[in-house]
């Protein structure tokens, strides 16, 4: 990191969060790494998947024998390690039918089966962790760049690259593929890739 405050002399980390302070000749800079909120996903059977550093852990609340908890009580939850990665996942996303779980990084993804946590598909070169499932869980898409989307059907990469006419800032899953751009929010058919409707609106999420 090339800062404009001269030479760096000291660095310090916070004990309870992800802040790092760096002291320079002419000032100080406070950096924040990662997310403050935990990265997790819950499937239709209430099974919880959570990221702990570069490890994904799983926990089933239904297996707790004595769920008599009190307000503000600190819980000791028996999470089970299900996978370790050479990167720190930035998001976890279950498919709508709950049968698959996607581990997402800023530029890559891996799809696993929920039962047994077996690898089904992986890919690289993704833009900003943009991943979306279709409503029936047979297709998903990734934003490859600010102008292209790559679709997968039954975990097979489709040869034809999708190029939305208004560009790509973010994508959203569901019955239709939602694509956010500077022109608004566009909805496309997953199968035909035809534009269904463009809404002139500024959004953060769908």
From TrEMBL:
One of its GO terms (molecular function) is structural molecule activity. One of its GO terms (biological process) is vesicle-mediated transport. Residues 54-206 form the COPA/B second beta-propeller domain. InterPro entries: Beta-prop_COPA/B_2nd. It comes from the Eukaryota. Transmembrane segments: none annotated. GO terms for cellular component: membrane coat. This is Coatomer subunit beta'-like. It comes from Octopus sinensis. The gene is LOC115229891.
């Amino acid at each position: 990191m090339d800062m404009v405050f001269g030479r760096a002399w000291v660095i310090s980390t916070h004990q309870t969060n992800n802040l790092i302070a760096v002291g320079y000749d002419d000032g100080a800079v406070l950096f924040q790494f990662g997310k403050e909120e935990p990265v997790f996903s819950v499937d239709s059977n209430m099974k919880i998947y959570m990221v702990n550093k570069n490890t994904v852990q799983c926990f089933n609340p239904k297996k707790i024998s004595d769920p008599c908890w009190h307000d503000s009580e600190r819980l000791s939850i028996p999470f089970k390690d299900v996978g370790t990665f050479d990167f720190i996942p930035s998001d976890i996303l279950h498919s709508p039918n709950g049968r698959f779980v996607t581990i997402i990084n800023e530029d890559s993804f891996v799809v696993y089966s929920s039962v047994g946590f077996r690898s089904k598909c992986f890919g690289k070169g993704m833009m900003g962790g943009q991943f979306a499932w279709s409503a029936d869980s047979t297709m998903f898409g990734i934003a490859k760049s600010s102008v292209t989307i790559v679709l997968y059907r039954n975990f097979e990469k489709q040869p034809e690259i999708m190029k939305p006419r208004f560009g790509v800032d973010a994508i959203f899953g569901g019955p239709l593929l939602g694509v956010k751009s500077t022109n608004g929010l566009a909805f496309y058919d997953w199968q035909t890739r035809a534009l269904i409707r463009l809404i002139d609106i500024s959004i953060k999420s769908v």
